[in-house]
Amino acid sequence: MMKIVVDAFGGDNAPLEIIKGSMLAVDEFGVDILLVGDKEKIEKCSASHKINLKHTEIVDAKDVITMHDDAKAVLKAKPQSSMTVGFHLLNEGRGDAFVSAGSTGALTVGATFITKRIKGIKRPAIATVMPSEKKPILLIDCGANAECRPEFLYQFGLMGSLYMKHIMKYDNPRIALANNGEEETKGTPSIKEAYELMKNAPYNFIGNIEGRQIPFGDADVIVSDGFTGNLILKTYEGVAKVLMNGIKSAFMKNAFSKLAYLGVKSGIDDMKKQFDYKEYGGAVLLGVKKPVIKAHGSADARTFKNAIKQAVWFLENSLIDEIEKTLAAEV
User: Fold this and answer.
1) Confidence (pTM)
2) Which site among 127, 181, 187, 215 is 20 to 30 Å from 23 CA-CA?
3) Sheet containing 125-130: order of strands
C-alpha cells in the first residue's frame, strides 16, 4: 500500500483542510498517510471537527516554514519544521511521496538539496497541468528556475514529454517552446539556442508557441523558464476567474437572464469544471529522485485530495524510472 507523507501545516488553510483532504484520499485512493506537524494541534483539530484519522500516523514537528521565511530555511534554519521533517521521512523510506501546500521556494530547495536530483538532471522543474480548449496541457517550468540555460529547457521538454506520455497517456505529446513569436529567429539568445537543441531532441518538438495559442491546446507541453511560466500560470488563472465572474454577472442581471441561465446551466457547469485548477490539485516537481507534489497554497480539502492523486499517479506509472532510463539512453 502506498504511504504519502503530508505536510499538515503548509498552505493557507492548514491544518484543517489538509487533514480533511488527506482523509478523502484515504477513502478514494486507499493510501496510508504520514501526517507531519504539531501533533497536539493535529489531534485537537481532528477531534473538534470529528475527523477519524484512519490509516494515518502522526509525526510530531513543532515548527512551520511560512511564506515569509527564506526558502533555504528548509535546510538549516528550521530543522524541525513540518516541511523539513517531511523531506527527511521521504528520504528515509518512511513514505513513498511527499505532498505540501507550503512555500514553493522552500519546497524546491528541499527537493533539490534533501531529496536530490535524478542523476543527469541539471535542474528540477515545477510542472502544472492546465486546461485548454481541447484537452489538458502541461506547463513546465512554473517557478522553480527564474532563469534557465538552453540545456535546462531541453530537459524540461524531455521530462514534460514523459509526464504526458506515462501519466496522461498521450501517444506522442507535442512539445513547444514559449516565445514571443512562432518564427525560429524570434526570442532571446538563450531561447534561440534552446530551439536548436530541441530540434534534434528525441521527443516531438513542434517549435515555438505564442501566449495567445496556449489556451487553444496547440501543444501538449509548454516549455518555459520559471519566471515566464509563473506569469503564464497566474495570468491563466486570473483570466479564467474574470471570465467566470463575468458570465455569472451577465446571467444575474434580471429575471429574464436568470431564466435563460437554466437553459445553459449544464454547459456552463462543464466549462467551470474544465477550467477549475482544483481538478488537478497542484504541481509536480520533476527531476528529483522521489515524487514531490506542490499543492495549491489556498488548497481546500478537495484540492488537496487531488494533489495526493498526483502522487498516486506518479507512483503507479513509475515516472522517475522512466526519466532515469531515458537519460541513460541519451548518454
Assistant:
1) 0.91
2) 127
3) 56-60, 32-37, 3-7, 97-100, 292-295, 282-286, 125-130, 137-140, 221-223, 174-178, 204-209
